[in-house]
Amino acid sequence: MNNTIMEDAAKRVARRFLPDEPEVRLRPLGQGLINETRLVEARSGRFVLQRINGAVFADPEAIAANLLRVQDWLRGQAHAAVRLPQLLRAANGEATLRDADGHAWRLMEYIENSRVLRPLENRTQAAEVGRALGRFHVALAELDPGTLCLTLPDLHDTPRCKVNLESALASARQADTKPADTSTRGARAAEAAVMTALEHIEARAALIPTLQQARMDRILLPSVTHGDPKLDNVLFARDADRALCLIDLDTVQPGLRQHDIADCLRSCCNRVGGGGNAPLANFDLNLCRALLGGYAELAAPLFDRTALAFLYPAIQLIPLELAMRFLADYLQGDRYFRVHSPRQNLDKTLIQLALVADIEAKRGAIERIISDCFTCGQRRA
Question: Which CATH superfamily is domain 3-110 in?
């Protein structure tokens, strides 16, 4: 869909959500890799309009059902200190509208006087990110995860990521047997950097099923999770180092809190990244301590000794999982993540693998931070 057609479709949908508005103005918002997002300005206020990526989320109505369920739950929790942007309904009562081409759209509350940090600037901000995630987990701890749909069924199924990578590699190598002008995927599969990445992934094959197996064996039980609590999805007050809320709620579904914490740390604590043959990554231990400390202030009682034992493996596993996803997408011709250069997904793969290596080199320090933060958090509770 070209930009003009997309803009026309977006404006028509916005008018269906806001039929009493004489005029609506739209402009791009954010830098998300999955959904198309616009800021809607109207007489009654400002809103966020999103076209949900149907190639990623096959059931947008399930996303809406989850968000409405969570909203209803939080309204009934007078003590809950968590804030989420509200999903709004159209005049017909529907929270998801389809355009003429079948694409799904939603309208949400716009959080005024807010900002996104890129990157974290200090430990105060890191602690605030931890508290935001902790508030979310605590507020929804008693909500039965079985009442929510799986909007992204394979989310954090790391063994499945490995299978998908192997399938992408096999397809790319098969393409290499065809005439050179039919596909670039075969050439990508043969690159030295791809082969090096595959070697690093294979060297950690024993780690890949760790959390999934613990879940299947019911050693770890599912809870309501955010699913994508990266730094971009935490809104801060515009004039203070204070986290307001989590956004981008497509992947709110049953999952493991360990995955949420680990993904948050991966996003916030990787301080140095670069492309090329020797990408750099530095897992910042000071930010890790601040973020986990903020989280544990509120949520430490959610973790017994068994649950806590899986936190370091999750921290190690999440960048490995993301590396496999980036590499599979690179081999498939960049179908999933939006890219701005042909090599971007490969560069991201290498950065994530460098981060895994740095996390492994700092294992003892990370495990001490986990122990210190959660012990102090449990004492305060």
Answer: Phosphorylase Kinase; domain 1 (3.30.200.20)
